[in-house]
Predict the structure.
Amino acid sequence: MTANKSPLEQKLWHNWVENKDNDAANELIQNYMYLVSFHVERIASHLPSNVSKDDIKSFGLMGLFDALKKFDPNRDLKFDTYASFRIRGAIIDGLRKEDWLPRSIREKTKKIEKVSVELEQKLHRSPTSEEIATKVGLEAREVETLIRDTLFANVLSIEDKPKEATNEHKEGIGYILPDEASVLPDEQMMQSELNQELAQGIKSLNENEQMVISLFYHEELTLTEIGHVLGLTTSRISQIHRKAIFKLRNTLQKIHA
């Protein structure tokens, strides 16, 4: 537990584990607040603007404190890893219990999906957000945002509560991908085909979209950090991310269907 820790951190951990010193606990929480901020940023990027980051942060803080109480220093596991799992789990559980996706949004999404199917049958290809937007009387940005929000809401509604820190999923695309080790062979084959379809879909994205998807889901950078890497504003990165998710929506919907 104390490996690679400063003398002060070692003292704080000792005071907390051995004496349950609340002052030590508060200082440790401050030391690990960056983990809460990280998960708040990542998860908030999938949520509607009406969801308060302060609420998400509160869920994350509960997860961090829970990690502090339950962490076993004798386990071969870094606290950062364990805390990340608990923080993210607490945020997801908190969101699942809240009705954060209003009925009006769900109704708009149903209309979008209906129009999307009609246009696909007519055009013999997936319609663009602009084509859908024209039909439903919305802006393309709103269509993309509604699809993204609903995808994430569907994932929350079907996901089982995480059991082990080592099985943690990522949010978004990585978060939707299934655990192939826990399913039957025929299901594995179907999932493998869907994963291949997703990989092909990602290849069809433009360069910026591929880069944002890679940096967000594989390198685990926040949208703000990606903006620094690519020299673009956070809002522009958010727009690119939103468009990429929209383009991949059909495969993502199949994966968690």
In short: Residues 32-97 form a domain with the Rna Polymerase Sigma Factor; Chain: A fold (CATH 1.10.1740.10). Confidence is low (pLDDT under 50) at residues 158-170, 175-180.
